[in-house]
Amino acid sequence: MQVLVEYLQLWNLVDEIYLQPDTADQHIWHFSRHGTYSSKSAYDAFHTGSITFGPWQRVWKTWAPLRCKFFIWLAIKNKVRTADKLAKRGLPHPAACPLCDQAEETVQHILVSCVFAWRAWTLILHELGLPAIVPQPGCTRFSNWWCQSIKSVEKNLRKGLNSLIILVAWEIWKHRNECDFEGVVPCVQQVRHVVVEEGSVWCLAGASAFQDLLLRRLPLGS
User: Fold this and answer.
1) Residue 190 placed within a domain
2) How many helices and strands, by DSSP H and E, does the chain display?
3) With bands split at pLDDT 50, 70 and 90, how would you rate the model's confidence at 53?
4) Which of 33, 72, 85, 162 has its CA 20 to 30 A from that of 105?
5) C-alpha to C-alpha distance for 168 and 180, rounded to whole angstroms
């Protein structure tokens, strides 16, 4: 009985189709504009309806060490093991942000909302002549601030600025870990110093756009 039902369904599908004996058969791939199969079109079709990761180009196509990109990716996805995440799992965690001791610790707080982070961004961006993109009070999403910052600068600065933002965010996170696990006293100048030192290493490793940005003001290796 099922075979008969399927036969009738197929009959309905081909009932309006008329074969043309003088026309050669051809394969048409409906998942591409030109009807031609490609691996990319098949990959895109396979992921149709999936949730896209908006800032992926700013993360994965920016010059930066892979470990730094991976951290930024986790931070944007809110997957970093900060106090809020640890508390949900009943694990030991800081009672407040180790950098400012004024608010509950989340990764978004650490990177843009924290007073310490704001001072670090302010110091570095002012030295580069970019005070207009310092995170403003009320800024709560790192990825949103990053997107707005990139749009507000000249195109020739964007690649270098992407690298800088990744670097500063990474060093703020590392400084947070030093304060939490090693008892280091929070120091904005220390973060600035490490950014300059590490930035010079990135430039030597081939981050040319980043080097162009840093040479505007920051003395490399100082």
Assistant:
1) yes
2) 11, 0
3) low
4) 162
5) 18
- Determine the residue type at 85: K
For tokens 């989340």, what's the residue? 106
Domain-located, residue 176: yes
**Do the beta carbons of residue 85 and residue 119 sit within 8 Å?**
no
**Residue range of the domain that includes 149:** 107-222
How far are the Cα atoms of 45, 64, 138, 154 from residue 151, in angstroms, in the given order? Answer: 31, 20, 19, 8
Q: The whole model's pTM is what?
A: 0.76
Give residue 82's pLDDT. 93
- Does pLDDT of 185 surpass 60? yes
Q: Give the whole-angstrom CA distance, residue 93 versus residue 149.
A: 32
Please list, residue by residue across 130-162, b when 16 or more beta carbons sit within 10 angstroms of its beta carbon and e when fewer do: beebbbeeebeebbebbeebbeeeeeebbbbbb
pLDDT tens digit sequence for 95-145? 899 999 999 999 999 999 999 999 999 999 999 989 999 998 888 899 999
Residue 158 lies in a domain: yes
Q: Is 219 exposed, middle or buried (0-12, 13-18, 19+ CB in 10 A)?
A: exposed
Asked whether the beta carbons of 124 and 131 are under 8 A apart, the reply is: no
Quote the CA–CA distance of 142 and 139 in Å, as a whole number. Answer: 8
Of these ranges, 49-53, 65-69, 89-93, 156-160, the one predicted with the greatest mean pLDDT is 65-69
Report residue 98 as tokens: 């180790």
